[in-house]
Amino acid sequence: MKNVLITIGKLYLLLTLICFAVGCDDDKEDVAPGLYVASEEIETFPGDTVLVSGTASNYAGLASITLSCEGWGIHKVYDLNGQNPKVFNYDYRLVVPKTAAFEENLLITICDVNGWETKKNVLLTYIADMESPVMQTQLPSRIAVDFNTATNKGSWNLNLKFTDDRDLKSVRMQIPDMQIDETVAVSGRSGELKRTIDFTTGEFPVTLTVTDAGGNETIVNTTVVVMLAEEEDPIQDYPVMWVVNASEKAEDYLDGYYAPMIHKGEYQYEGKFYADKEDFQVFFTSGKTMNGDLFGVSPYVNSKLMNKNGYVVPVTIAEPGYYGVWIDLQAHTYSVWKLEFSTTPYTGSLTISGCGFSDFADWGTSATEMARDGYRYTCTLNQIGGYTATRQYYAARVSDWGYILRYWTSDEGCGWWEDTTNAGGAVCSYTSDYDGEVQITFDTAILWATIKKITE
């Protein structure tokens, strides 16, 4: 009898749990789905692409998700009846119509398998256009055009490219001395203006104005200088070019005076340099000499790059700092820009080492660390005049040898590189019978080094 009562008690408990479970399911059937929206207000503008995302959930299973905005013609339905997930992450990209009105609502509706719904509105508001168009073509302040005596004109081939973060509206070209005032409609996020304009001799100011749909303007002024063609020495597509400080003398340097420019394409080269003062001046050479092909600018047009030793003048950089430079020998053009470093250059301790100096034994290290000013390290050493072996030098952090400046050279140029694992490699070699003090300078921003005689 006792066993029968125990059995009946267990059955009663099981029936109670089943009823409780069924009752819980019944309770859940009348619970609305959950809806999470990543952003309940979106700032946008006509033509923009907007991402609407979030998460819908319901333990009974989801039947559909609908996103709608009647004013923008949007009605997107995710039909989930085939799978009825309990959790669904939605990502919807909508393109804002060009004619969109704002302060509209995007209605998001979640429906579960039992017909229960949850709704939320996402407010769509207008964000003002504050960005001006960007000129992709960088025009110099003065543009040289050769006057052709056979055709009795000088032709300027303009190819201006520009972009905007939203939508362009127009580009206007004004050349008052040629009675030219032309406005061309453009649209989209990128545009260009191509024109060939024939001039007589003289100087012609040009104003180019690009306007976007929001009324923001970008204005560029230049002057086209038309004159008889200047004679230039023959040029080649050299394997490497060199940039040099025009205000100093090559003979004052034992090494590093000529900094390499890497060959980037036919007749095109790119390099880096440091301007240590205002109105810093540079020339470009085809070899490590000032007596051969020497490139500067026309004394009449400071944007025209030419090869004419004894005729051309240096390119002048107004402010001190680090610069990148690009030259195109065939197009007779160049561009210079302030360098922005993607990673912070090294500024820790550096000590000089090498051979051919009386300040320490060959391959020893200097007793004092190099003095640092920004990214430039300097020290003064005494070079042994009667030294017969090849002279060499490099710089390192000798406390742990975790940073070493090593050297590479090839037919395409030369330069320094940072060895942060003491993996080994070359150091700089040079020949010189100079006997006296020298100043060695390392620059960790552009990875370059020089040795200069101290004559005063």
From TrEMBL:
Write out the entry's keywords from A to Z.
Signal
Which PROSITE patterns has this protein been placed in?
PROKAR_LIPOPROTEIN, TONB_DEPENDENT_REC_1
* First and last residue of the signal peptide: 1-21
Q: What is this protein called?
A: Uncharacterized protein
What is the organism of origin for this protein? Answer: Bacteroides zhangwenhongii
Lineage of the native species? Answer: Bacteria, Pseudomonadati, Bacteroidota, Bacteroidia, Bacteroidales
